[in-house]
Each structure stands twice: as C-alpha cells, then as structure tokens.
C-alpha cells in the first residue's frame, strides 16, 4: 500500500492538524474551502467533530494533512479536547468582526497546551476579513498577539478564499520543517525549535521566516 | 375595504416563489433522493387513509381516548407507532406519548413568562445559531421570519427554565424539528419533557457541563458494536475509529442533525414512545446494513462512510425493521454498570435505570 518499494522518492507524511476557536468564527468553512474549495453561507453549526484530509507536495514528497474541525461552544470541549492528542499543527481561529472571539484566543491556547503532547506548529487566523466595514479587531492587534505568543498569523476569508490555502499550507510546511529538523537532529529538536520561535518573536532576525509568516489580506 | 376586495379576488394569491420543496418543506437538492419524489399510487393513498382513520379512532377527539387506549392495548400502540405515525397526526401524538401535554396543562402561563419577562445569558449564542439550524427548510430560512422567531423563543425560554443547562448547540435541532409539528409553547414543553425525563430517562445529561451522558452513551455504543458486530468492532479498533468520531450527533440531536428528514421523523416516533434505546438500535442497524462495505475501508474512507451512509441504507422501511430486530436492553444495562464502575461513581445519572425499564 505505501510506496516504500520506491526507494527515497516515495516517502509519505501524515500530519494531524486541529482547527479550534469560538463558535461561528468560520472554522468549518475554512476547512471546506481548503479541502473542497466550497463555501456554504448556510452551513449548520458543527456538533462534535468533523474531519477532512488534503494532500500537498513538499520536496517531491506527498504530505497528507488530516484536519479535525471541532465544535466551538465551550460545553463541547469535554468531548473535542480528546482530538488535540497527537496533533502536530493547529489553527486558532477568531472572527475579525467580533472582539470576544479574539479575546478567547488565550483560553484556546491554554487548552492546546493542556491537552496536546508534542510541539505544535500554530497559526493565529483572523477570519472573515472580507467584512472590513464591520471590523472590530485590527490587523495590528492580531499580529502583536501572534508575535507575543510565537504563532504565525494570517487574516483569511473563507468566503472569498483570501489566504485560506496559504494559511493551511504554511502550517503544513512548518510541521514538515519541524519533522525534518527532528530527523536531522533529534537530540536538540525541542531546544532548537524554541530558539527559533523566540527569534521569530523578538527581533525578527530570521527575516525570511518573518515575511513568510505574516500575511494579511486587508492591510495595504 | 381594500382588504375585503383582495380577499374576494378570485385570482391566485400572488406569485408563488419558485422554490422546489419536498413534502416536508425542505429545499430539494438537484437530484432528489429516491423514494421521496415518487408519486404515490392510488393503493398507497388508500392505505394511508385507512391508517389515519385507525389512528383517529385510537386517540379520540383531541387525544381524549388516548390514555384509555394505551392502558388497554399498549402492544397495539407500540406496533402502530413502529410503522410510523401519520404525518397529519404526528404533532398531537408526539405530545401525548412524550407527556408534554400534561406538563403544558399543569403550567399555564409559564411559557409566556419565560419568553417575555426573563432574560438569558445565552441569548447571543442562540441568535448566532438560529440561521444555522435547518438552514435548508423553508420555515427557518427567512431572516427574522416566523420560523426563526419561534426557534429563538423556545431556546431562550429553555435556557431560562434551566439555567444550569442553558443553551447548547444541538438543542436547536430538537426544537426546530418539534416546531414543524406544533406551536411554540407545545414545542417548549416537549423539550422540557425530554430533557427532564417525563416518561423516559432524562436527556439533560447530553447537554450538561462535561456532556456526561454523551460520554456514557458513546462508551455503551462502542461496547454494543463489539458485541453485535465483532468483526467490524475489531476493524474499528485497528483503524482507531471510535464512536465519538461519528455518533455524537446521533445522540445529541436524535438523528435530526444530518439524516434524511423522513427517516428522522420515523425514528422520533419510536424514540418518543420507547426512549433512547432506539437510537442505539438504529446506530447498530446502520453499521450492520453497511457492514460488508465498512469492513474493507481504511481510516479516512471509513470516517467518510460513517458520516455519509448511502440512500438505500437510510430507507426507513428497511432500516427500522432491522433496528427493531436488534436486542440491546441487556447490553445497555451491562455496559452502563461497567461505565459507572470504570468512572468510579456511586452517584449514577438520575433516571438512567428507568430507561431500561
């Protein structure tokens, strides 16, 4: 079944990613936009968990992302937090038109830290950036929270597709980088990763990383 | 005067919106599922007429004979309900078998009080989900229309009635389904009857903090699958599939979230009379029906298949008889004890013994 018969070129990767954030910020539509290029303005509230997979190619290798979309209402964390285990990437989503969803980001990060068992590639996602008229969270606020927490940051619109693929692919790429580093230098893996994150936060010494990390659809 | 003129006008009342709806009021998908669109034969029509007559006789005017009948011939009632309650009597019969009619009569004015004079901490959460509940049904489509207003009122009233439970996503599908068959106040009391356990085990544990009853039911369902379909259970274990990945919605919304509406209604007929056992039975029956396909699938395809059962598996006239043939009482009792032991609790869920009467 796997392509181990083809030496070297046929490597496969499978990464588990979770999408979390308050209710009605657009998690399910981000996922359906990414996995099926679909958007449903009248989608139902997610009950429990949903699941999609999507593949991309990195360095000639097939990388498959197994993405879990979770119910946002607080009450459901009792059953959804089980899905954080084994995740190597996370998108923490808020709605740029609702400040409360941005204020919850810290709690979602705590949840992740409590329940996940490995280092995660994490991205803060400000969704619904097509709704500029009723924006309630500035790009700057999003970006500085991401910097303070050592997260990637992007504003997206599942409605008009802005940055959706970029956001997912960046997370997947980062996971891939983490894993490659891990393979190359497994002893110092964690230390190195955290060093990386700090430099990303403080002074952006790693310039290429920084420009790669931040996208916003709405700031000039 | 003008109004009068309009009323007397013989013309068709305005242009009919070009919506293509199925017989339950849902927007039709491009390709209608088989069985819904088939026009009914004269034979079927006659049979339906005869059924309605029998039912009318059984319940009496406004339900006056119901209690008498059910005491004398419970097995007849059970058999008839399993064949499906006639759609035109569904709303009334649901209120009779769920015990909600009694609650309504015992609590005059309470609903109005809850809707008009009380405020709820969940109001914003409810509003956000209103347009995300049965979004393809004509009654709930119109923004701030009568359907959405009723749904809001019922959910808000419940969140005030039981502030500990408040509002939890999923409750909207219960309320929405009920509102298609009865008034707001009736729907509210039926919701109360279900969550507080007027006749069967209370459902409120599905919505309380920690979702304790969801966790218990998923554990029990997992065990039942292993008991009834050992090979498939083994396959699930190997593929690391567990019921929380596909069955939470089955319990939280009693199949009203994503199943074809005509099937959901038939399940609800039995659910209201026989209790949550039917949810387990239908779940196992679905897996049994699709057993030979499911057992070949790897993880991802398996999850997809478990969320998208084929049309033929969801035909109530084949699925429900299969479900009725599956015996779960003993299994449910044993797994409940096992679950309680595992979770080290003396304080079992209120009424959980009642469900297995």
TrEMBL record, chain A:
Spell out the molecular function terms from Gene Ontology. Answer: GTP binding; GTPase activity
What the entry lists under CDD domains is as follows: Rab11_like (cd01868)
**Is this entry keyworded Nucleotide-binding?**
yes
**What is this entry's stated membrane topology?**
Lipid-anchor
Subcellular localization(s) per the UniProt record: Endomembrane system
Gene Ontology CC terms: endomembrane system
Q: Give the matching NCBIfam families.
A: small_GTP
> What name does this protein carry?
Uncharacterized protein
Fetch the Pfam families from UniProt: Ras (PF00071)
By sequence similarity, the record places it as follows: Belongs to the small GTPase superfamily. Rab family.
Please give the start and end residues of each transmembrane region. Answer: none
Supply the InterPro entries for this chain. P-loop_NTPase, Rab_GTPases_membrane_traffic, Small_GTP-bd, Small_GTPase
Record keywords, A-Z? GTP-binding, Lipoprotein, Membrane, Nucleotide-binding, Prenylation
- Lineage, top ranks: Eukaryota, Viridiplantae, Streptophyta, Embryophyta, Tracheophyta
TrEMBL record, chain B:
Domain named Rab-GAP TBC: residues = 84-275
- Keyword Methyltransferase in record: no
Which residue windows are coiled coil? none
Q: Which Pfam families match?
A: RabGAP-TBC
UniProt superkingdom: Eukaryota
Where do the record's region annotations for Disordered lie?
1-22, 335-357
Sorted alphabetically, which SMART domains does this protein's record hold? Answer: TBC (SM00164)
**Keywords attached to this entry:** GTPase activation
Q: Which InterPro entries match?
A: Rab-GAP-TBC_dom (IPR000195), Rab-GAP_TBC_sf (IPR035969), Rab_GAP_TBC_domain (IPR050302)
Mind listing the GO molecular function terms for this protein?
A: GTPase activator activity; small GTPase binding
Composition-biased stretches, type Acidic residues, lie in: 1-11
* Keyword Transmembrane helix applies: no
Descriptive protein name: EVI5-like protein
Species of origin reads: Pyrus ussuriensis x Pyrus communis
């Amino acid at each position: 079944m796997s392509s181990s018969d083809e030496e070297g070129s046929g490597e496969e990767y499978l990464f588990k990613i979770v999408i979390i954030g308050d209710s009605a910020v657009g998690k399910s539509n981000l996922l359906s936009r990414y996995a099926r290029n679909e958007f449903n303005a009248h989608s139902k509230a997610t009950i429990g968990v949903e699941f999609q997979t999507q593949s991309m190619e990195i360095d000639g290798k097939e990388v498959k992302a197994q993405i879990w979309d979770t119910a946002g209402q607080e009450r459901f964390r009792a059953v959804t937090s089980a899905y954080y285990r084994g995740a190597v990437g996370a998108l923490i989503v808020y709605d740029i038109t609702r400040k409360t969803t941005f204020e919850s980001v810290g709690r979602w990060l705590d949840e992740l830290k409590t329940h996940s068992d490995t280092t995660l590639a994490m991205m803060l996602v400000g969704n619904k950036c097509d709704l500029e008229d009723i924006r309630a969270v500035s790009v700057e606020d999003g970006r500085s929270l991401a910097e303070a927490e050592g997260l990637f940051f992007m504003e997206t619109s599942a409605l008009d597709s802005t940055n959706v693929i970029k956001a997912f692919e960046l997370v997947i790429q980062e996971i891939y980088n983490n894993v490659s580093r891990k393979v190359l230098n497994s002893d110092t893996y964690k230390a190195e990763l955290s060093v990386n994150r700090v430099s990303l936060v403080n002074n952006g010494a790693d310039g290429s990383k920084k420009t790669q990390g931040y996208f916003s659809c709405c700031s000039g | 005067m003008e109004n009068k003129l309009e009323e007397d006008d013989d013309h068709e009342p305005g242009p009919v919106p070009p919506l293509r709806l199925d017989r339950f009021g849902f927007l039709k998908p491009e390709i209608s599922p088989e069985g819904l669109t088939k026009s009914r034969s004269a034979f079927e029509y006659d049979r339906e007429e005869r059924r309605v007559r029998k039912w009318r006789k059984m319940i009496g005017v406004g339900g006056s004979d119901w209690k008498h009948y059910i005491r004398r011939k419970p097995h007849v009632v059970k058999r008839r309900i399993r064949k499906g309650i006639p759609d035109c009597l569904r709303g009334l019969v649901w209120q009779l078998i769920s015990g909600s009619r009694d609650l309504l009569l015992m609590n005059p004015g309470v609903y109005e009080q809850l809707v008009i004079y009380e405020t709820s901490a969940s109001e914003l959460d409810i509003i956000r989900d209103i347009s995300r509940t049965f979004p393809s049904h004509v009654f709930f489509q119109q923004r701030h229309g009568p359907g959405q207003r009723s749904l809001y009122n019922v959910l808000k009233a419940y969140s005030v009635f039981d502030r500990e439970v408040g509002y939890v996503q999923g409750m909207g599908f219960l309320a929405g389904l009920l509102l298609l068959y009865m008034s707001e106040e009736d729907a509210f009391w039926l919701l109360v009857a279900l969550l507080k356990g007027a006749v069967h085990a209370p459902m409120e544990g599905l919505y309380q903090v920690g979702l304790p009853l969801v966790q218990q039911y998923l554990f029990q369902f997992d065990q039942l699958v292993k008991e009834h379909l050992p090979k498939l259970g083994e396959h699930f274990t190997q593929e690391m599939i567990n019921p929380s990945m596909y069955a939470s919605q089955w319990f939280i919304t009693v199949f009203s979230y994503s199943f074809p509406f005509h099937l959901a209604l038939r399940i609800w007929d039995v659910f209201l009379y026989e209790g949550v056992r039917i949810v387990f039975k239908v779940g196992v029956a679905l897996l049994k029906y699709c057993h030979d396909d499911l057992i070949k699938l790897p993880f991802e395809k398996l999850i997809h298949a478990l969320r998208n059962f084929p049309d033929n598996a969801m035909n109530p006239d084949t699925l429900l008889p299969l479900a009725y043939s599956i015996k779960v009482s003993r299994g449910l009792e044993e797994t409940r004890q096992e679950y309680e032991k595992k979770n080290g609790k003396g304080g079992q869920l209120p009424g959980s013994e009642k469900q297995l009467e």
